[in-house]
Amino acid sequence: MTGSNRFVALRGGYGLTEAARWYPEHGLVFSDMTRGGVYRFAPGSTEPETVIAHRKAIGGLVAHVDGGFVISGRNVAHKSGDATVVLLEPREDEFFFNDLGADARGRIFCGSMPRTEVRDAGRFYLIDLDGTVSVLTEDLRIANGVHADPSDTVLYSVDSGRCLVWQFALADAAADIAASRELFVDTSEYDAVPDGLAVAADGSVWVAMAGAGCVVGWSPAGEKIAELASPHALTTTLAFGGTGLAELYVLTGDNEDHPNPEGGTVFRTTAPTIGAPAPRAAVRRG
Q1: HSE-up (13 A, CA, CB side) for residue 51
Q2: Is residue 253 within 8 Å of 19, Cβ to Cβ?
Q3: Mean pLDDT across the chain, nearest whole number?
Q4: Which of 74, 169, 254, 286 has the greatest CB tally within 10 Å of its CB?
Q5: Average pLDDT, integer, range 50-68
């Protein structure tokens, strides 16, 4: 089915919005990759607040159980107030870290962006609770949306460069997670790239299709179940939120390929299904 939901614009004028998450105490949290900063719309508010100023290239974030947020960009770091703990630095052949997510145990999963002269060389990392780092894959083109399912048995990860969504079994050992990777869906039927990803309480997987102006939902079995039209072509990320996680926040961007006079915009609409809570990181570097 194709949705025709009513979208309410909360705020425009951003560059490339990313990293959308909903946490009850924060509301909607998201980043502006190109213009910098992390922002939030507190529950019930239509006015954004700055959470982290200036920092650019934040493609992913998750709240930390100790407060603050784990964010990507030039490194993966836990920022809380004025304190910063770096959890992962890029290697020589990596440019920066893009999206990241956590599982219910609090482990962090993040993808790196290879330098422009290196193709198919982005890595997908696991940062364990004690700060130990493991490489799960080394062949990503453009690492993007990361989210665990509500049962905490499956992790989904987007490779925008290949127009694929992967799935991993959330085992105890990193080697077992790496060995479990298999294709979830191929999105190449769209003239667009898969970007941000969110998971609903029923296990369905929802992906923002950047360039196609839509959000697409798949069942846990990989069957397409819905397509929701978005107000802007460059639909970058999404998050379930609001009371009972019954709202869907859809975020858009503005770039050279998809210029948008309104700028990147935060929209709210009725969710097609109830969302699953966003996990929190619990990684501590000893």
Answers
A1: 26
A2: no
A3: 96
A4: 254
A5: 97
